[in-house]
Amino acid sequence: xxxxxxxxxxxxxxxxxxxxxxxxxxxxxxxxxxxxxxxxxxxxxxxxxxxxxxxxxxxxxxxxxxxxxxxxxxxxxxxxxxxxxxxxxxxxxxxxxxxxxxxxxxxxxxxxxxxxxxxxxxxxxxxxxxxxxxxxxxxxxxxxxxxxxxxxxxxxxxxxxxxxxxxxxxxxxxxxxxxxxxxxxxxxxxxxxxxxxxxxxxxxxxxxxxxxxxxxxxxxxxxxxxxxxxxxxxxxxxxxxxxxxxxxxxxxxxxxxxxxxxxxxxxxxxxxxxxxxxxxxxxxxxxxxxxxxxxxxxxxxxxxx
Length: 305
Description:
By secondary structure, this protein is an all-beta fold. The protein is 2% helix and 49% strand. The protein has one domain: 6 Propeller (Neuraminidase). The strands form 6 sheets. Strands 1-22-21-20-19 form a 5-stranded antiparallel sheet, with no helix packed on it. The protein has a 4-stranded antiparallel sheet with strand order 2-25-24-23, with no helix packed on it. Strand 11 (114-121) and strand 12 (127-133) form a beta hairpin. The longest helix is centred in the C-terminal third of the chain and has 6 residues, at 276-281. It starts with a strand and ends in a 13-residue tail after the last strand.
């Protein structure tokens, strides 16, 4: 059973979570980027190092995978159907019936040592995605927004490992982390233009735990995986920690709300970077996990292209 390590008072706070359950039988090398589709009632995510896009249908228990020609970093639901997938070289449309990939948007000056990591569609209908150096972990990455009419638009530069992209319920605040800096930031956000204001610090983690994939609940709290620390943290927009939940895997990578009422927290994990001895002690490393958290999440916006 998982236990709540810390739980501070917060208005309308949910009860403590139930035990994690394993979803499906897949084991990801580097699971990331879970996104729930309310229309289909399915969960999509990627296995970056396994070069796969996956879909799990809780109603039937079926998990389907699509092989990718390059490493996928993240994905988004499209308003017109199918998915937008950020592969190493750029953004592609994925037709879910045929499995066909169609090049959609290609960034300028994108060296082959770079790849895309965390990405989501924002309340502005644009696809936000960050790049990173996949060989040397230096500040070579860029946070982009992809606009249907303009393609890749650079927003923030000097990024090492982009993560924790999510937005407040009113769409007026964007959360983002550069993981090695151990800091989750909040930016004032204009949904009409996609412009960012001056950032402020929301939460700082302690090494070796770094902020990874994140989601926001209907109460405005941010849930984020703490990669390296066996944890998920829930904090308020002011940075007050509400809950710390133990995860039965050292390297949780991202979270997403799903299920009929968006009250299930899905958690991706990884086996990548774990030794054989560590893997032996972590039989759930790489598994897709689920937890009933008693608080409702928010539906993810769709890319308007």
